[in-house]
Design goal:
Elements lengths: L2 E6 L3 H13 L3 E7 L3 H9 L3 E2 L3 H5 L4 E6 L6 H10 L3 E5 L6 H14 L3 E4 L6 H12 L5 E9 L18 H16 L4 E9 L9 E8 L4 E7 L9 E5 L2 E5 L6 E6 L12 E3 L2 E3 L10 E4 L10 H10 L9 H20 L3 E2 L3
Helix pairs in contact: 4-5, 5-9, 7-9
Bound molecules: nicotinamide-adenine-dinucleotide.
């Protein structure tokens, strides 16, 4: 065990960090926890973790090299600033802050402290995302022009503090951050327009069902949809490329690629095709001999690489994978999302 870490906010995600770091990152040991709730402190103590009485005690603990912040979103900034100023390396849960200005403040503090500041964008290690990345890199079905990414639940309202604006609740700052981060990694081109449709269907204060349409400078368009009221789901990913289509159904990564065969040109017949909905040529089924069905690429992905990278950065062996500049881009897009919703229009930008 080389380094000791602490966790601020020992709820769902804080406990998850503790469990996974302890079982999967040999160079890190979770020493202690800071939480404002008695029950969370008791749970930590029951797991033989040290419970800090306040932030001051944690900041003064010279054994702590790294702190992960996993509180509700509105507390991230103050903790991050205090930790960096005290010379701690910091991982912050997503969304890193509530807006661009707050993140810029943290980035300034990180630069003057010389310490690590990273954001837990763990969904870059999701298998479905890595498959999409691989399909685009391998160009098996050519260049993409439209990519749809969806997460769809049916439990309606946002849970707990996620339903409150003051805490940084709402779907954009919850799942939106993940899906936007994934798109900004997938498509290597500036975002030139953002159009959002945000619905407050079941939460009084925040949006709970959303659609965001992005246009990138290289001509690719992307749709992110997040729902809490979907009883029949669309696929997790639907990817339209020039030479084929890919579908990933869900997080279990069932799916396929359908590719146009290079050696079998489709010829148009003069005959009109009569479907149940009437005559059509354009929408008539394509002859099957012109396409082939391929399996999705095999990929491996391991979330623990996130923390392994943090350790390697602490030791000067690697560059940071999840960089604050990348989170800043996501936050800039998010500000355009809210601007689009407020104006009811698409917003031009260069992000
Ligand atoms: P949670 O409500 O389960 O836990 C939050 C914990 O923080 C609670 O124990 C609470 O008592 C504590 N807390 C509240 N205010 C505090 C304060 N001022 N100081 C110290 N502790 C405080 O919430 P959660 O689901 O664990 O979410 C926490 C963070 O993790 C959020 O930023 C959320 O967006 C993020 N998160 C990320 C992922 C992911 O996949 N990366 C998943 C879930 C949540």
């Amino acid at each position: 065990m080389k380094y000791k870490m602490a966790i601020i906010g020992y709820g769902g995600m804080g406990s998850w960090h503790a469990e996974n770091v302890s079982s999967r990152i040999p160079d890190l040991m979770v020493k202690g926890v800071l939480d404002i709730q008695q029950s969370a402190c008791e749970k930590a103590a029951g797991q033989n973790l040290y419970v800090y009485s306040d932030l001051k005690e944690l900041l003064a603990d010279g054994e702590i090299d790294l702190v992960t912040i996993a509180t509700p979103n509105n507390f991230h900034k103050e903790y991050a600033l205090a930790l960096l100023q005290a010379g701690k390396n910091v991982i912050c849960e997503k969304p890193v802050t509530m807006n661009v200005r707050e993140l810029e403040e943290i980035m300034e503090a990180a630069a003057s402290s010389g310490k690590i500041f990273s954001i837990h964008q763990n969904r870059r290690w999701d298998k479905d995302f890595v498959i999409v990345k691989t399909i685009l890199e391998q160009q098996t079905i050519g260049n993409p022009y439209f990519i749809e990414s969806r997460v769809q639940g049916s439990r309606r309202a946002m849970y707990g503090w996620r339903g409150h604006k003051v805490n940084g609740g709402g779907m954009v700052l919850d799942w939106g951050v993940h899906l936007l981060d994934q798109f900004l990694i997938l498509i290597d081109s500036p975002v030139v327009s953002v159009q959002a449709h945000l619905f407050n269907l079941y939460s009084d204060e925040v949006e709970d069902n959303i659609k965001i349409l992005l246009r990138f400078q290289n001509g690719v368009s992307a749709l992110c949809e997040m729902s809490t009221n979907c009883l029949i789901n669309n696929p997790r990913w639907h990817i339209s490329c020039i030479d084929g289509t890919a579908v990933i159904e869900d997080w279990s990564c069932k799916g396929k690629l359908v590719k146009l065969k290079a050696d079998s040109e489709m010829t148009w017949s003069e005959d009109i095709v009569y479907t149940e909905a009437g005559p059509t040529r354009t929408m008539a089924p394509r002859p099957e001999y012109t396409t082939e069905v391929l399996a999705l690429p095999e990929v491996t992905s391991d979330w623990s690489d996130y923390y392994q990278n943090i350790v390697a950065v602490m030791e000067g062996r690697e560059a940071l994978i999840v960089k604050p500049e990348q989170a800043l881009r996501v936050m800039k897009v998010i500000e355009k999302v809210f601007e689009s919703e407020a104006s009811g229009k698409g917003i031009s930008c260069l992000i």
